[in-house]
């Protein structure tokens, strides 16, 4: 019989808390649960903040949050789950960055906290109180951590980069003339 230690219990609490919050946010986007907008409403919001097409962006964010969060909570495929959730939170942080750090001012503090915790869990691993451990770490191998982060980083860079370009084009169209003719 295995004796669980404080580290295992601490990782379980981090996984359940972070994964649960992420899964709930994803369910808001995907299904409209917990007062969320569902795919339609979230898609409109995504378009308004520069992520397009809106419905596809809502689906991607919702799946990364709900799927990554649920897998983190279960401690299953932890490298992929943590990387996916961290990528989604990087995309959210990009939206909130112009408002500064603190969430009370609409800043990126909350997204950064969830993203960093997810990334930390992906790197550290789920602990012994997890499905990964129960399944012999079949989907939690050391090589999976850099592979998952490289894949998610590339996808996130493309999505945030495309958003930045859209936002710049919108702002260029809104500029006033420097000189009167």
Helices, strands, pairings?
Blueprint: H1 6-31, H2 38-48, H3 54-74, H4 78-96, H5 109-124, H6 131-134, H7 144-174
Helix pairs in contact: 1-2, 1-3, 1-5, 2-3, 3-4, 4-5, 4-7
Average of the residue pLDDT scores: 94
| Count of helical stretches | 7
Shape: elongated
Low-confidence stretches: none
Give the termini distance in whole angstroms: 84 Å
Major pleated sheet:
none
**Rg, alpha carbons:** 18 Å
What is the total tally of β strands? 0
Class from secondary-structure proportions: mainly alpha
Order of helices and strands: HHHHHHH
Which percent band covers the strand fraction? under 5%
What percent of the residues sit in helical stretches (DSSP H or I)?
Answer: over 70%
Key structural traits:
single chain; about 180 residues; mainly alpha; about 0% strand
Description of the molecule:
The protein has seven helices and no strands. Helices cover 71% and strands 0% of the residues. It is mostly helical and 181 residues long.
Summarize the structure.
The chain is mainly α and 181 residues long. The protein is 71% helix and 0% strand.
């Amino acid at each position: 019989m295995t004796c669980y230690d404080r580290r295992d219990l601490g990782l379980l609490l981090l996984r359940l808390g972070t994964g649960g919050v992420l899964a709930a946010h994803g369910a808001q986007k995907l299904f409209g649960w917990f007062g969320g907008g569902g795919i339609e409403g979230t898609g409109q919001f995504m378009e308004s903040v520069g992520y397009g097409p809106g419905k596809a962006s809502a689906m991607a964010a919702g799946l990364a949050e709900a799927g990554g969060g649920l897998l983190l909570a279960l401690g299953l495929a932890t490298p992929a789950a943590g990387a996916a959730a961290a990528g989604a939170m990087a995309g959210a942080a990009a939206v909130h960055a112009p408002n500064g750090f603190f969430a009370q001012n609409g800043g990126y503090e909350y997204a950064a906290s969830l993203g960093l915790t997810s990334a930390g869990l992906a790197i550290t691993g789920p602990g012994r109180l997890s499905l990964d451990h129960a399944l012999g770490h079949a989907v939690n191998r050391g090589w999976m951590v850099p592979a998952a982060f490289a894949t998610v980083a590339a996808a996130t860079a493309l999505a945030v980069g495309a958003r930045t370009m859209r936002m710049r084009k919108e702002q260029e169209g809104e500029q006033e003339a420097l000189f009167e003719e």
